[in-house]
Design goal:
By secondary structure, the protein is mostly helical. The protein has one domain: Winged helix-like DNA-binding domain superfamily/Winged helix DNA-binding domain (Arc Repressor Mutant, subunit A, Orthogonal Bundle). It contains six helices and four strands, in the order αβααβαββαα. A hairpin with a 2-residue loop joins β3 and β4. α1 crosses α3 and α2 crosses α3. It is globular and about 35 Å long. The chain binds a DNA duplex through α2, α3 and β2.
Length: 122
DNA sequence: AATGTGACATACC
DNA sequence: TGGTATGCCACAT
C-alpha cells in the first residue's frame, strides 16, 4: 500500500473511494456520512465513513473532511480537528453558516454524490 | 481472543 | 415524539 496508513486490505479501496468522493464535494457545500456510504454501496456502513474521515487526517493529501456532517447537518466530528471550533471555522470560511454545531440551511447546501447536481448541470 | 468503542443511520417500541 | 435497540465493521485495549 502506498502510504503508512493502516487499513485492512479488503477495505482499502473502499476507504480510497470515500476520500475521492469527499474531495469532490464542491466548496461551500456539505454531504452526510450516510449519503457517501449509500453512494459507495455500503448503505449500512456509514460508520466506516466516519472512520475513513478519522484516518484522512494522516493522509499526505488534504481531504475536506469538514464538509461531511451527519444526516441532520450536525458537526459531530468537530472534536477531531484539533481545536474545538476548527471545523466550524473552516466551514464559515467557505460561506457556510453554523449555529449550535449545526449547518444552517443544511437541506439547501446538501450535496448528494449520487445525484451530483453540480456535476450534471455543468 | 474477547470485549468495548465509535466523526452513523434506521427500526421499533 | 423520543428514547432504546440493533446493524455495521475497523480498531483499540
Amino acid at each position: 500500500m502506498t502510504a503508512s496508513i493502516k487499513i485492512a486490505e479488503r477495505h482499502r479501496d473502499f476507504f480510497e473511494m470515500v476520500f475521492e468522493t469527499v474531495k469532490q464535494i464542491p466548496e461551500g457545500r456539505v454531504t452526510s456520512y450516510g449519503a457517501i456510504a449509500r453512494y459507495l454501496g455500503m448503505a449500512r456502513s456509514s460508520r466506516m465513513v466516519g472512520w475513513a474521515m478519522n484516518v484522512s487526517h494522516r493522509l499526505p493529501e488534504p481531504v475536506p473532511a469538514h464538509r461531511v456532517v451527519n444526516r441532520a447537518g450536525v458537526l459531530t466530528g468537530k472534536h477531531h480537528f484539533g481545536a474545538p471550533d476548527r471545523m466550524q471555522t473552516l466551514l464559515e470560511a467557505e460561506g457556510i453558516k453554523v449555529e449550535n454545531d449545526r449547518v444552517v440551511d443544511f437541506e439547501k447546501l446538501f450535496w448528494d454524490p449520487a445525484s451530483a447536481p453540480e456535476l450534471r448541470l455543468k
